[in-house]
Amino acid sequence: MSRPLPAVDLALLLVSGGSLVAGAAFAVIGRGAVAHALWIAGALPILVALSISIVTALRRHEAGVDVLALLAIGFALGLSEYLTAAVISLMLASGRALEQYAQQRARREMTLLLTRTPRHANRFEAGEWRQIELDTVRPGDRLLVRNGEFVPVDGSLMGHAQLDESTLTGESAIQQRSSGESVCSGVVNMGAAFEMVAAASAADSTFAGIVRMVESAQQERSPATRLADRYALLFVAVALLLAGGSWLVTGEVVRALAVLVVATPCPLILAVPVAVVSGMSRCARRGVLVKGGGALETLARASVLFFDKTGTLTSGRARLVSIETGPAISPETVLRFAASLGQASAHVISEAVTTAARERNLVLPAPRRVVEQAGAGVQGEVEDRAVAIGSFAYVSSLATPALWSAAFLQRVGYGGASAVFVSVDGVMIGALQMADQIRLETPRALRLLRQEGIRRLIMLTGDRRDVAETIGATLGLTEVRPEQTPSDKLEAIRAARREGTVIMIGDGVNDAPALAAADVGVAMGARGAAASSEAADVVLLVDRLDRLVEGLRVARQTRRIALESVIAGMALSFAAMVAAAFGFLPPLLGAVIQEVIDVAVIANALRALRIRSTATAGSLSRGDAERLKSEHVELGPVMEQIRELADKLPRLPRTSVVGALAGMNELLERHLVPHEQRDDLEVYPGLARMVGGEDPMAAMSATHREIFRITRLLGQMTEDIRPEGPDAASLREFQRLLYGLDAIVRLHCAQEDELFHALGDGA
């Protein structure tokens, strides 16, 4: 239904209200003619506004119920029911103003994005900082962002920064960013001024794309709103038939007027757009940008979900999985040499290796005389020793291949991972297994998607079949389709649309055709490829898969709230029309009752703003979640030493076994056991309150008990070893316990990381 500008709605409300009150005052003192004139004067502007609204709607080939309001006021004036006409006008003007207020409130989070558009930038020119127009910023420009200013364009930091990213991501905590990290336009500097290097122009930056999406979303009419218009035609016909029938049967035109009054305006037209926009606003608050009401409603009906793998189910970034070492070489030594040399390389694998070393607090000396061969590896000097890192072919050309290298390459190939070999002074001392790991939130997100009614979960990927099927089996996906080209993905989605409403989620340029072909395309992350974001109907501004669950939940609850509002409003309006047709409801009282119905319908539709996005009773702060996960990173070397000892135990001289096991027991008692005890006594009680339930951490605590049992058993068995060393059976038992402990601790840490990640969502 077409609407004038908000200022016009306010003016109509003031005119109709003022004329009604003034007319009532003159009627009380016996000046009836003046009162009638004032009431007519208050009704005429509403008639004009309604006429404009109807003509505009007809030009757009849209239907509406403004015609009922026009007839009601016209009938009232024609029957000299001037007070009734004035009251109808006031009720109509207040209803329009109320709807406008409700929609403005519902759009608050989306509109906030538009108000944060940067206008200027501070660029370093001719030895000084100069304020320039945003459109003149180019990639490579050196920019300054002062405290409280918006980051003007996408770029990389030249120093430390404290950023408020809440408008884009929904995360309320201030984010700490370091030199070299990327930063998105539209976030706010909450700390000291910092410098950055522009990576894109304003038009090509993240925030500009989001603004375009928001503006498009605000202009689009929801299919449900168009559906409401079609129902409105039926409603108008029923109202006119009921009004005309009551007039013809009884001969009382006042009854027809009363029917038209209670049919003005229609709750159907008020409820649907308010509920849909409220749902879109709720999604935006949680970092899920829905481009239009149509996408929100289609999302609510979805039953089939296609995933891309890289960057969607997985993080899209390589992480250190394990370290293979040669004899008498520690894993820390291999990682330290590799990361030290990797500091001089911009390759993503080198950056991942360096990040892994820094997470373990390793001191990395600066490399010298670095030479990089693109796509192969890097060589240089670290602490006056010749070091090389890279592919097996590259490193083996500079060092003698190790005996274990062939088996390591085969093992790495099974998981679709990559290997970084390390040589020092011509000797291959070890290798790093790097893999794009499954996102922490992915298993939980898939479980919740099934709970929300998604019956098919299908992965589309260009990876090899063995790699894809391993991930599919790990996650319990319904179907895995490997070695897919963009055209294959497109055909798969088109075929699935014949079976149900399809969602496709991806993050790369090659996903854009599939995103566009799906009923609902979802792009991962605001920093993702522009092509996928433009093609998608929904953009997850936070790079987390579980935000899709929240969007789906909000969409389905929004649709239910809209239907509830429509059914209740229509039923009440129809009951009032029947009562008016039988003469039980005079026009003046009918106008008041209809306004009450409208207010109730809009208030119910606004419930979509309060949809809960999570079932947890609380959440960890981002800092606490990161601290708890970082403690597991510090445990990484301990887990590696457990596995390393288990591997080499049969090869150790029997007289050395006691010393090796004693050292391991001391390591466990000093690091692992205190960590798990602290978790059980200090961390788990707080987590239990957040998760809710009688004893939600019982299974996790049981794992702690098993870790305590194995470490104690290892200690007791070590004390009982005879001086000449353990026999073969005891050696096998030690090895079994060490492998078991390694598996339990790794699994337990992974479970805790997933829990910390979920509770650290800021919900």
Helix content: 55-70%
Name the beta content range: 5-15%
Sheet/helix structural class: alpha+beta
> What is the subunit organization of this protein?
single chain
Read across the widest sheet, the strand sequence of neighbours is: 10-22-21-20-11-18-19
Shape: elongated
The CATH topology annotation of the domain at 303-500 reads as: Calcium-transporting ATPase, cytoplasmic domain N
CATH superfamily annotation of the domain at 303-500: Calcium-transporting ATPase, cytoplasmic domain N
Query: Rg from C-alpha positions?
Result: 34 Å
Task: Provide a concise account of the structure shown.
The protein is built from 27 helices and 22 strands. With 763 residues, it is an alpha+beta fold.
Strands, helices and their partners?
Blueprint: H1 6-28, H2 32-59, H3 66-78, H4 82-106, H5 108-115, E1 120-125, E2 128-133, E3 142-145, E4 155-157, E5 161-164, H6 166-169, E6 175-177, E7 182-183, E8 188-189, E9 194-198, H7 206-219, H8 223-250, H9 253-262, H10 267-285, E10 288-290, H11 293-300, E11 304-308, H12 309-313, E12 314-325, H13 331-342, H14 348-359, E13 368-373, E14 377-382, E15 385-390, H15 392-396, H16 405-414, E16 418-424, E17 427-438, H17 442-451, E18 456-460, H18 465-475, E19 479-481, H19 486-496, E20 502-506, H20 512-517, E21 520-524, H21 530-535, E22 538-540, H22 546-581, H23 587-605, H24 622-648, H25 654-691, H26 698-719, H27 728-759
Parallel strand pairs: 11-18, 11-20, 18-19, 20-21, 21-22
Antiparallel strand pairs: 1-2, 1-3, 3-9, 4-7, 4-9, 5-6, 5-8, 10-22, 12-17, 13-14, 14-15, 15-16, 16-17
Subcellular location: Cell membrane; Membrane
Domain Hemerythrin-like: 626-757
Family: Belongs to the cation transport ATPase (P-type) (TC 3.A.3) family. Type IB subfamily.
